[in-house]
Automatic annotation (TrEMBL):
Gene3D superfamilies: Spore Coat Polysaccharide Biosynthesis Protein SpsA, Chain A
Protein's UniProt name: Glycosyltransferase
PANTHER family documented for this protein: GLYCOSYLTRANSFERASE (PTHR43685), SLR2126 PROTEIN (PTHR43685:SF3)
Pfam family, one: Glycos_transf_2
Amino acid sequence: MTPAPWRILHLELSEPLPDLEISPPWRKLLVYWQWKGTPLGCREYDVGELPRPAAAVRVDAVQAIAPALGGLLGLPGFEDRTLYRSPARRRAAGADLAALLAVEDPFRALEEELARQAARCRSAGTLSVIVCTRRRPDALAKCLDALEACRGHIDELLVVDNDPADPGTFAVVQGRPWVRYVAETRPGLSRARNAGIRAAKGDLVAFTDDDVEVRPDWALRLRCAFTGPEVAAVTGLVLPASLETDAQVVFEKGFGGFSGGFRPVAFGPDFLDDYRRQGAPVWRLGAGANMAFRRDVFQGVGLFDERLGAGAAGCSEDSEMWYRLLAAGLTCRYDPTAVVLHHHRREWSALRGQVHAYMKGHVAALLVQFARHRHWGNVRRIGLSLPAHYVKLSARTLLRRGDRRRNALLAVELGGCLSGLWEGARLGKEARE
């Protein structure tokens, strides 16, 4: 893994592509290709591959964007099923290139498809956007500035202050009369999310985080992704805002970041069934920084589990909710046209705390999911899959293989898993009492 800093470029394919080059201090180039704001693919360039002429860049772009173009146009063979486990469900993605080549002007076809979706989504209902925050007024101000560009597609915007004793959040909201302030004195992200849901009036409820900046069409694309009554939740694409420090690079590339790819995916109950014996990787459905729900689904499956999430067990309150929806026979749709930029933690110490919290919350959520649904795959993941994963990672570390910075977090991850077991046992004891 190339050390930081990495330069990020968003290249617009509707304009002439430039020659690519970088100079110190940049050590790598990460290019995202988009068509009139819609992201279609990416590619990394090492220093040894640069400079690269525009003609070669065009070839790179065509190869990178073909799967996304086919997927967004709904062409046969381009549906992304790579997350499925069984061969019967894991069909080869992007196999039917002839279908894409038969499209006379794929970019025009993409524009027409997105326009059709925008026309249909007017009947999706009203949209409430909720931002939960705690003592980060500067980040919140940037987040709200970005959301202001979406105001035409947002019916109400709520900021839930999870520490109202600190005046910073209220001061930011006070200067924006179109934002509604909600106070939640009980600490915990799930409690803040639930307070926002109770206060929201929209038919659809979307969440983003205070360390995120949304694209101008974000709210519109989320609304359009609710394509039918079976779609209970929607998640979108989360891209890194910057990769200027090693901590940011390791999170994005060593841990996979938040990105779910550039093709839309509909996750239904069959996804849960496919992994019932192994524990469905529901955390791959998206990220809590970019998600939306039909508000009435909470009446059927309940609100966010307040034992999970930041300020409680650590995280995974979002993926546990997606698990509940799939178990109820509903669909969660991932739509990469709904885009946000996430500011990853810059300092190594902050990343260590994040990784510990993620693994603690992950294990605690697996135990909660087992207790709620009696799906033994969740226990199997704790008892077999995770130990096997860490045995391999430990061997790599001892043999000094792989990225040393990524491997340096091994003890932090293991500590998080053990904390998750302890937290799960404590929660189980409280439930019995």
